[in-house]
Amino acid sequence: MSSNTHPAGNTPVSARTIVLAEISRLVSSEPKIGDVYPGFVDLVGEIIEFDRLSISSVDSMTGTLDALYVDGIFLSDRDAGFGYRLTGTLVGSSIERGRAVGMGGDTLLEHWPGGEELAATGLHSILATPLLVDGVLIGVMLIARKSSAGFSAEEVARAGEVGSQIAGPMAAELRRNSIYRAMAA
Question: Could you say which of 125, 134, 148, 160 is the most buried, measured as most Cβ atoms within 10 Å of its Cβ?
Fold first, then answer.
């Protein structure tokens, strides 16, 4: 990661469109998002301020989330490879609604499992965006920051746009990984 905090300003609509197009081009340029993840992180940082960004796959059979790519503030139990159940979480809520959901401050701590853990690391706001392909959930993008102010409606919308850009390439990567595992078995 190039810096610990990615400060996004008030990005004009045309500049945001250019960044979204660049995100789409970047994540489609390599078969593994991990190969371009640092560049992806920097681009997202141009339109949404954050201190931690992760992309996770979701196993609908077990109801668990598995972190695949992480950048920013280190959380020992939520690094790449970490998995946890979604029931009753903010991530679960975003999945149920099929759209990005943001939370911050006392609401995060009081109402969502894991909120206290995040706050203990200095992260007080979280934004969860489901990654959907043709209405099928394949993953989640999580954005967190130290500020307890939460996320604006515009930032939530931007996260949804980013999620739309990366869902297809993420689904293709997960399919390839599944095929490789089946061939190795």
Answer: 125
